[in-house]
Specification:
88 residues, mainly alpha, globular
């Protein structure tokens, strides 16, 4: 509640919703964001957790940032039970 920046406040709330696995609420919050790369990363991550392969592919295609693409690889490996590979 003490965060002044609207963008920082929205991102913090989004991270909290993701941590709590409240994907529906996170998607609602994402509708308020423009076509920012964070939006596509989070939507891709939600798709991984929900097992929606088509949504994952569609959102991942919109990401050009190599860091976010690598993080999605890590997230997918963790989701697939390959934690050692994700850590490596």
């Amino acid at each position: 509640g003490k965060i002044r920046s609207k963008k920082s406040k929205r991102n913090s709330e989004l991270m909290l919703l993701m941590e709590r696995k409240q994907y529906g609420k996170a998607k609602e919050l994402l509708t308020q964001m423009g076509g920012h790369k964070t939006k596509w990363y989070v939507l891709s991550d939600i798709a991984i957790n929900e097992g929606d392969i088509e949504a994952f592919k569609q959102n991942k295609e919109k990401i050009t940032d190599t860091f976010f693409l690598k993080m999605l690889d890590v997230d997918q490996a963790v989701n697939d039970g390959k934690k050692e590979e994700a850590v490596a």
